Amino acid sequence: GWLEGIKYSCSFSNIRLGFLRRAKHIHALSKWLHDYQPDVVICIDVISCLYAAKARKKSGIDVPVFS
């Protein structure tokens, strides 16, 4: 696949309530950003860009977000 040889992380959830699922993803990504401090975050769609922007703000880490 296109991610072969690239180190990446994904977030999955079985939570059916949309607002809780979004909160879980944003919290998990903000913690991951704080722990790993990556050079860049690459998103594959508009929703993941929104989550990444909110997580970036919550974590206080200034990392570029690309889609």
Explained architecture:
The chain has a two-stranded parallel sheet. 13% of the residues are buried. The protein has 67 residues and is mostly helical. The chain has helices spanning 18-36, 46-59; strands at residues 41-42, 65-66. Helices cover 49% and strands 6% of the residues. The mean pLDDT is 93. The chain is built from 2 helices and 2 strands. Helix 1 crosses helix 2. Strand 1, helix 2 (46-59) and strand 2 form a beta-alpha-beta unit. It has one domain (18-66). It comes from Escherichia coli. GO terms for molecular function: transferase activity. Keywords: Transferase.
TL;DR?
It is built from two helices and two strands. It has helices at residues 18-36, 46-59; strands spanning 41-42, 65-66. The chain is 49% helix and 6% strand.
